[in-house]
Write a structure and sequence with these properties.
By secondary structure, this protein is mainly beta. Among the domains are: 198 residues, Cupredoxins -  blue copper proteins (Immunoglobulin-like, Sandwich); 50 residues, no CATH class. It contains four helices and 28 strands. Strands 3, 13, 14, 16, 18, 19, 20 and 22 form an eight-stranded mixed beta sheet that branches. Strands 4, 5, 6, 8 and 10 form a five-stranded mixed beta sheet that branches. A hairpin with a 5-residue loop joins strand 27 and strand 28. The chain is globular.
């Protein structure tokens, strides 16, 4: 849901800027915020140069106003409440009501004026990651500009010189502010809207948090042991599906502002990396992939033709990044029979349950059967439901849903894929052939060879 709040007059707003031009307007651009965590419809331009808009996964794009040929935006740095997934919320910092902040979409050659109001309890600034800007607009607090004090508003002015996929984030107390979720996506569209056209264009950021079970605020000093791996501050099953029409050409832009790399993997289709935050990759330099590794501070744009209908998994291929609320000190108990131990512990802790004896998937099953209680404001490690049962995933995981016959701007979840008859893997119910095992044998030359014998065959 979008909320509009009229802002103070220019005189009352207290503008403090490193480079304020003559913007003697009656008021700053009004503040537009969002309080929903679902994917919003693309923002088609109503003024300025035409472009083909992006869709922000579990997010939205920031509207603007035109002022004498200048495109004006208003960002507000502030504490926000973000739902990570149903059943868990976090107290984060972000922009305009959400974390990450809204995507900013501009066109190559646009003259820009971006007002930034600070409603945080400390100083901040905004760095326009990857974009060519005048040095005084680069947003490094203390180096290229004075910090934006709490309650003050700065203005940044520059031209969008290079088309591509970028980010924005603070360069003031960066460890705290980025750990709290302060970041957003930036798209500079090409001046020619027919350049590298696609049918659907998605964007999101990779971010991570360390939130203790039962608490709401991330630990800002964590460097390695994060327990929530998220896309746009959402964890599966809170991440929306990417809904595309069969045979659409699809672009997905991904930025990484976590503390580690992420190999992002798509099922069912091969893609090409067509862009980075340094620019577009020439066609002769591209190659087919199904996984691309995105390092810290990088952005990647991947493209593919969605020619295979179905519900295709899309996730980070680091297995621990597709789990929620991980406990790093939990022992591995595979194969450990806990029957007697459970009885003894049960005398002290009546609600104790043995876990991990056969693997972690049993946790999903127990949660389903027993409505297993969790600490307040905590997600299960593995969760989410599919048409065939528990999906046993969390964190950086969602689904690309390819369907025939969708309308151009239809991004609604179409529900589970209806598989053609006979096209689903199923249990074999007939008698199976005997299992063969290999035993070493010596050839005439004295070299050991392998021969197969039925498992039931015994030599006496």
């Amino acid at each position: 849901m979008m909320n509009r709040r009229n802002f103070l007059s220019l005189a009352g707003a207290g503008i403090a800027a490193s480079a304020v031009s003559k913007v003697a307007m009656a008021a700053l651009p009004e503040i537009i915020s969002a309080d929903a965590a679902n994917t919003q419809a693309p923002l088609h331009p109503s003024s300025g140069r035409p472009y083909n808009p992006v869709v922000t996964l579990n997010g939205w794009s920031l509207p603007w106003r035109m002022n004498n040929g200048v495109k004006e935006f208003h960002l507000v740095a502030e504490p926000v409440l973000r739902e990570i997934a149903p059943g868990m919320k976090a107290h984060l910092w972000g922009y305009n009501g959400q974390s990450p902040g809204p995507t900013i979409e501009v066109v190559e050659g646009d003259k820009l004026r971006i007002f930034v109001t600070n409603r945080l309890p400390e100083i901040t600034s905004v760095h326009w990651h990857g974009q060519p800007v005048p040095n005084g607009m680069d947003g490094v607090s203390g180096l290229t500009q004075p910090p934006i004090q709490p309650g003050k508003t700065f203005v940044y002015e520059f031209e969008a010189k290079r088309a591509g996929t970028f980010m924005y984030h603070p360069h003031a107390d960066e460890m705290t502010q980025m750990a709290m979720g302060m970041m957003g996506s930036w798209i500079t569209h090409p001046k020619n809207p027919k350049f590298m056209p696609v049918d659907r264009d998605f964007v999101f950021l990779l971010n991570a948090y360390d939130v203790d079970p039962g608490s709401y605020t991330p630990k800002v000093n964590t460097m390695l042991e994060f327990n929530l791996w998220t896309w746009n501050s959402r964890a599966f099953p809170g991440i929306d599906p990417l809904v595309v029409r069969q045979n659409d050409k699809v672009r997905i832009r991904i930025g990484n502002l976590t503390m580690t790399n992420h190999p992002i993997h798509l099922h069912g289709h091969e893609f090409q990396v067509t862009g980075t935050d340094g620019g577009w990759v020439t066609p002769t330099a591209r190659w087919p992939e199904v996984t691309t590794d995105i390092a810290v501070g990088q952005m990647r744009a991947i493209e593919f033709v969605a020619n295979e209908p179905g519900d295709w998994a899309f996730h980070c291929h680091k297995s621990h990044h597709t789990m929620n609320a991980m406990g790093h000190q939990v022992p591995t108990l595979l194969g450990v029979k806990q029957g007697d131990l459970v009885k003894k512990i049960g005398n002290l802790l009546p609600d104790y349950m043995a876990m991990g004896e056969t693997g972690m998937s049993e946790m999903s099953e127990m949660a389903d059967m027993m409505d297993m209680p969790l600490p307040e404001n905590t997600l299960p490690m593995m969760t989410g439901k599919g048409q065939y049962g528990a999906i046993d995933m969390g964190g950086m995981f969602t689904v690309v849903k390819v369907r025939a016959g969708l309308a151009r701007d239809d991004y609604k979840d179409p529900g589970a894929y209806l598989h053609p008859k006979g096209s689903v893997a199923h249990e074999v119910e007939n008698d199976l052939p005997p299992v063969q095992r290999q035993e070493p044998s010596t050839s005439e030359s004295g070299i050991e060879m392998s021969v197969r014998k039925p498992m039931g065959h015994m030599e006496h």
